[in-house]
Specification:
The chain is α+β, with helices and mostly antiparallel strands. The protein has one domain. The protein contains 1 helix and 2 strands. It has a two-stranded parallel ribbon. The N and C termini lie far apart (34 Å).
Length: 41
């Protein structure tokens, strides 16, 4: 169902950072178009 989809990843500095989410999604057939870790205050 998510095969071939484009993904935008927004990680949280105090939660799960973007690169960690990216590593979890890497085995799936997705195109990661943007990945960042932000501070949401």
């Amino acid at each position: 169902m998510i095969k071939g989809k484009k993904v935008v990843i927004l990680g949280d500095r105090d939660g799960i950072p973007g690169p960690s989410i990216e590593e979890c999604l890497r085995p799936l057939d997705l195109e990661i178009v943007f990945s960042a870790t932000e501070c949401f205050v």
